[in-house]
Amino acid sequence: MKRIIVNTAAALALSLSPAYADLDLEKDELKFGFIKLTDCAPLVIAKEKGFFEDEGIQAEVIAQPNWKTLLDNVINGNLDGAHMLSGQPIAATIGIGTQANVITAFTMDLNGNGITVSNSIWEEMQYNDPALDTPTPKHPISADSLKPIVKEKLDAGEKLQMGMVFPVSTHNYELRYWLAASGINPGMYTESDTGGRTDAEVELSVTPPPMMPTVLEAGNIQGYCVGEPWNQQAVVKGIGVPVTTNYDIWKNNPEKVFGVTQEWSDANPNTHVAVVKALIRAGKWLDEKDASGNFVNREEAVRILSQPNYVGADYDVIKSSMTGSFTFQKSDVRSMPEFNVFFDDYATFPWYSDGIWFLTQMRRWGQINEAKSPTWYLETVMKVYKPDIYLHAAKLLLEEGLIEKSEVPWDSDGFKPATDEFIDGVVYDAHDPIGYLNSHKIGNKDPAGLTAN
Amino acid sequence: MKFKILKALDVAGLQVFDPVVRLICGENPPEQFRKILLFIGIPIITFLIFIGIWTYLAPRHTTKAGEVPTPGVVKNAADGIWVFHVRENQKAEDFLLEGPAREKALAGVQARIAELTPLASAARTKLGELETASKSQIDQQVGPLQEKYNALRKQTRADEKAREEALIAQADSLPIGDAKARDAFLAKVSEHEVKSGTEKQALKDFKSTIDAAYADKFPEMESVRIQYNAYEEELQYLSKRLDYLTEGNQSVKISEGQSELVDLQSAFLTAEGGKATLKAAEKVLKQEESIARIAESSYSRPWTFPRQIVRSVACVFVGFFIGSAIAIPLGVLCGISRVFMAALTPLIALFKPVSPIVWLPIVFIIVGGFISDPETAFVHPAFLSSAITVALCSLWPTLVNTALGVASVEKDHINVARVLRLGFFSRLFKIVLPSALPLIFAGLRISLGVGWMVLIAAELLCSSEGIGKFVWDMFNNGSSQTFAQMFVVVFVVGVIGLLLDRIMIVLQRSVSFDGAPTAI
Amino acid sequence: MSFLEMENVSVGFGLEGFRTEVLRDASLSVEENEFIAVIGFSGSGKSTLVSMLTGLLRPDKGVIKLKGKEITRPGPHLGIVFQNYSLLPWLSVYGNIELAAKKVFPEYSKAQRKEHIERYIEMVSLTPARDKKPGELSGGMRQRVSLARTLCMQPEVLIMDEPLSALDALTRANLQDELVRIWEEDKRTVVMITNDVDEAVLLADRIVPLTMGPAATLAESFPVTLPRPRDRTSLNTNPEFKKLRNEIIHFMTAMNKEAKMLRVDRGLSMPDVKPFDFTAA
Questions:
Q1: CATH of domain C1-75+158-164+190-275
Q2: Whole-angstrom distance, CA of residue A423 vs CA of residue A439
Q3: How distant is the Cα of C254 from the closest Cα of chain B, in angstroms?
Q4: Where are the domains of chain C?
Q5: What is the ipTM of this complex?
Q6: Residue of B338, B419, B420, B435 to mutate when probing chain C, most C C-beta within 10 A
């Protein structure tokens, strides 16, 4: 196996220019876009708690109708930056969908998604696996008990339909991962099949998050993977059961990022750093805990998020996932302090390894339709993920005494250590994307030994 | 006087109020009362009946997606939308307050916070107690049920297994080739399957009683929860106001900045050495700049519904004017020239039925191509795109009507023009256009109605601030208020549409010379 | 040579094969300041005749000359009073007349124009209705506006297409007197189309019957030698008047019978074609 050799010191060498230290803003009235999901919290909190103002930024935080429009608005300059799906900057940079150089220097949160199935599918799953038929079944729940249902449907000439929010969304990859981990083929993207349904045993389709519960109830889909509050909505309305969260699929997986265009960042380097500063503070505020480990600011955050111009869902619905617990069934409310991670575990750092994981998934499912060399993976992710900007911001915050030294991975090479904390236990080592691809049963496999072309 | 008012009402298409005016003037009261009852009373009664049916039916139709809001709930939602607007305005105002006014407002806010805090914490305690109580009540109810269910399920599965085993044993001893015995066995298997199905259904039914127990409503708890949430929301708002009246306040920020500036200036005066002096000078300038920036800044207000309504109306008029500016000249050309009409007919036929949803992305791309930097653009591209989409969808009635109006100018009027040997333009402006005006305005009226309907879809799609965006945002919120908010939108859109139509009726009547009645 | 001369004029409508000839070989000559009445049944081609005299329609054959010059297109010098008034409904009485005055006398100053217009309004006794819209006027008043509009252009010939036929008898009588008065005041060459024999005899110097269509033509004219001013009340008992009237009526009815017989003989029903106006557009 060929390993990527990274000149880490060179990649992340900090050369703080005096201009940066002073942060002469190029632009002080900024517009940020977000989608109405609870993980937009860092943006909203940075505005509402005055962190942007502290940096001299007048921010407007504007809800966007869907991920596509949000990305378009960032690219065409209607927005300065936005809350984005991790896959969006990467996909835009390599030209899946819209081609544009979108970069990120800040990861907004970890985890925060769930997979919900309809009541009847849940009953059948319980029937297939009696261990699930208790008020509080054991987690993680794999798709094993779903497999017979898929088979039965296939025999009847039908396919189970499931919803996800965007072709390059974490939800798509997580749902695929969850299904494939139990040997269910979620379908491949090919050049002619941009819907990703080739060879599918379960068909996935794009549905906007707020439509998910409605479409599930209407029976057009039998399950979906989406962010909050749309899993909790299903429970509250009694139309579905969340079976697993993405925390169980991949512990502490990256979820949303703060994306801007390369051009914007080049034109407003100091502003970009100032924005990241404010966002880091917002993340820290969101994850602040008291001595006994309870979140101290989350209730206030939920109160703010439930305003109609932000997430706007009912306070109690948002609260049920954001204050450290998650409601799987009415009988099953679990403590999940790490369901939403906004700061801890170096959550906000833009890890190259996170970006590479998304690239491997895009390759695995065929959105990248040819084999790529390991160097390509690294070069691509370095075009998108900008830890140097993050570290500039962090350094300034450290100087101002607003964060602790231990809260930032100062000397990291941009790679998290290899981990097997996936639902199927497969080891992910970002230094070896090809090896990782080949360790899965379902999905594209590439020959080792490709070199950059 | 009386006749002036009556005439004005007539022109405005408000003849229903005619009897009211006559009644006030004391003209034949019984007759006027009868007319008032007929033209005003009956519509009001119809509306009340409508509200009544709605009130009666709404709570009787619940889906899992939500409840159909009753008029009361819709009213609450409207109030909520208004409160949000008022609060945002208040924050914007607070940001700019200075001097004694600021202190007064601050004192008011602090007093209200002091008043609310104990109420909120009391409600919180109460809510906690009620939640515990309801939970234990549910547990009490569910506990034995769940046990029973578990036992039942165990029994069912054991039975099923036993039956299955018995069948296997029987099948083992089944003579090969004995059709009769095999038929009997087949019947047994089917009996077994039917039984399994019934048992499964029984289990399911039992489970639904458990679910029902979870779904038990605790009205007292719900009302305390609503109260508590209301307190907390207001406190959240007040704390934000507090911020805008103190640290976040413009005047406070400026005075802070100025005191810092004084320090910097004195530092500059006493600075020694070239480098240090330059640096001090730069700092002074930068501070001055930052103060100027704060002085210019304003509270960045979110788009509240009333502001979105105003913007939607502006947008529909911009689109309507663009559309008319295209449609009327084209219509005139089509009307006066058969060649032109023949040339345009296929294009008109092709584009007329295209839905706004199709136009919008195309328009969006084209507009985007012209506006490279939205920051410096004169109008927001999303606004312009919505307006152009409105124009594209709404110009057809005007175009067709104008063409018809121009083409069907009375022959005698044309003869007059010929006898007078009027030139092209005087013929156009003195004979053709005035003659076509009533039809043009009838077209414009339809266009404006179409535009208003199209606009909401356009705004929704391109997220241009306006009613359409409000609809989409509230839908995306998926809160318990969402459905009620949609009803509010229905009424607002309807009322504004009605007003726009009225305006057009007035215009249409003021240009119509033939006294032709206008459709209401 | 006469002032207004029409020589062997033929005109028809419709495409070849379906052609209906409306006028055939119609000739007429009018002297200056002469008042001619053309009388005919409805459908005999009276309006077509008017259209040709005013240049709104070109004949297929033959020529029409005014003062020896061929009429090729309409113009203010060929004043026409339309049967249905043709007033612009969005303009006031004053506005309607002003439109014509402005075009014909562009050299007038504002005050001159105003005076000119008001003179003609006065002439048709409409001064009180000066600012009213046509919709607010009675039929008679509208026809007077139409007349004033045409007169104000001071045309060389005044051609009136059944100007009074849409009016009730009393208004009609009234306007007839008015017409006479105006004509006396403002002498002009007049061709009036009418279907009313009394009217023709009362007003005209000469009466020209139009034979029954299709392919109508102008018959021999009846000179009216009754002295002017002619008084309508005494005229009824005037033997000369009665004689002339009877002659004309007899001529017309005979012509009508003949035409009817002709139609029966031919046993053909005419194609149902509506005249198409090529001139409009």
A1: 3.40.50.300
A2: 14
A3: 34
A4: 1-75+158-164+190-275, 78-154
A5: 0.80
A6: B419
